[in-house]
Amino acid sequence: MLRSSVAVLACLLALAAPAAANTFPVTSNADTVGTCTTSCTLRQAINSANADPAVDYIELEPNLGTLTLTDALPSLGTAMVINGDNAGSDAPHLRIDGSGLVNRGAGLNVTAPNVVVRGLSITGFDSYGVRIVADWATLDHLLIGKTPAGDDAAGVMGAGIFVLGNDTTIGNLDTTGGATATGNVIANTVADPTTDPNGPPHRGDGIWVYSGSNNTIEGNVISGNAGAGVRLHAAATVDANKIGTNFAGTAADGNNDWGVQVEPGATGASVLGNVVSGNEVGGVLVQADDASVTGNVVGLTADASAVLANDGNGIEVSSDNVDVGNTTAPANTIGGNTAAGVLITSTGTAYV
Prior knowledge:
Elements: H1 2-16, E1 23-26, H2 42-50, E2 56-60, E3 65-68, E4 80-83, E5 94-97, E6 106-110, E7 115-123, E8 128-132, E9 138-144, E10 159-164, E11 169-171, E12 185-187, E13 205-211, E14 216-218, E15 221-223, E16 230-232, E17 237-239, E18 242-243, E19 258-262, E20 270-272, E21 275-276, E22 282-286, E23 292-294, E24 297-298, E25 315-317, E26 322-323, E27 333-334, E28 342-344, E29 350-351
């Protein structure tokens, strides 16, 4: 009886043990269908990971060039890690281009929780560079609207990154709070005039947080987009980004709308420690209650040594109970904007 019980317990433990992770190496920029084991295309690797319940790793060889898609890639439908950045600082290993597709959709669709994507260039799609409709996604060292070398390329319509989920991390900070080379670059998005009238408008925003909570945007360069640099339809933390400037924060590459727009539904949003300069409509627009805008450089270079004006107000507040760098919070450094440094249009309370 004891031997039988031990055998049953061993079987139960085997059933309960998590599946072993697999690594699928991407060694080609071809667009081949099917699955793989030892040598893969990206499409094959995603198919193989989707078929496996484990958290699999898709490792891209360096210098793969451009994957010119013949059809939309499969959704990232299980937890996985796609890594095209072995050292955390070298150029993305692969460019995914959708310019030749009839229905160009999104570059990557994240539909399962716990997906990590790093080290890709994504260009030439009709709706989004990356569309996230799941929780716990992490995007790191992506170039959206840029080649792996950092040159301008066909952007995406709609938004560089679209978020409809919780606990998303877009970008990265080092332990000292400074932006690292592993943040994302989101640029060259364009507005889509043919947007579905029953769906959300595609304004050409760099990052668009449509819904969810505990989402974080940190350490990115978000510049040269047709809409806002960052649009918050739901609350998020926007921390230590360059919005409307180059990576160094020394020259303008403005977004064609606000640098950051905090819409009425984004109650409690936090915009802190960013450089928000060079944008075409203004720096930061706050339309949500209980938000905070602290410790930012607005309308100046990153070191605040020269003017890099937003063409409008530096910070504009039209909501209630907003902290704009008062005495208990890090102050904003504001200067050079073509209109007011801070404009309060609400009848509620704002702390400046």
